[in-house]
Amino acid sequence: MAYYMRVLTPSKDYIPLEQLEARLNRENLHARFKVAGTNLVEWDHLVILDGKDREIAFLERLPVSKGSLGMKQINTFLLEITPCRPVSAVRRLRKYLKKVKVIYSFQPMEGADGDGDRLILGELMREIFESGKGIMQEDGIGFTNTEGFYILLFLPGGLQGSWPVAVYRWGLWNAFELDLGSGDQVADFHRGRVPKGATRL
Q: Are residues 101 and 195 in the same domain?
């Protein structure tokens, strides 16, 4: 089954490839882009290759408009989050999703699971996230807010350790480390509360 990581942004601006390359260079990561088509500025599809010219991911830019694939994806998310908790996060996320204009969708290639590959994709996501003032979403994991803290977690069995999360309370996002091994902390998170003893971020 295909696996995706996404950045959802209210900005229609294109992210220059030079900007993405500069981010990787700053982090001493080696990759290049193969653009589908001849337009290197207003790109819609590209392939990400690592320093050994291996294809590690496909990146698609999906505008959100009536009847578009991007709009269908937004509608899917709106249905998907309905039963989730905390309720306060669902409410905030529903409002945000209705303002999204572009989805940047990363599809890692089969076998692209090395540490270097993950670092490259992670830095590219962060650059688009920061530039477009967006939120991030990962299949089977959840959604972040615009500050990069997870506000909805689907908590599959494979998730372990501490995760940077936030709950919306008294008009503010309150960020902390969620211990996934603590049933009490997870329950408090689902109630929209900061657990006692949790490390604030």
A: no
Whether the CB-CB separation of 152 and 146 falls below 8 Å is answered with no
Output the CA–CA distances (angstroms, integers) from residue 112 to 117, 118, 163, 200, in the order listed.
6, 8, 23, 34
CB atoms within 10 A of CB 143: 25
Question: Containing domain of residue 186, as a range?
Answer: 156-201
Q: Per-block average pLDDT, block size 10, for the chain (201 residues)?
A: 91 92 94 81 90 93 96 97 96 97 94 77 95 93 96 79 94 96 93 95 95
Question: Do 188 and 198 reside in the same domain of the chain?
Answer: yes
Report the SS3 class of residue 131.
helix
Residues 8 and 41: their CA atoms lie apart, in Å, by 19
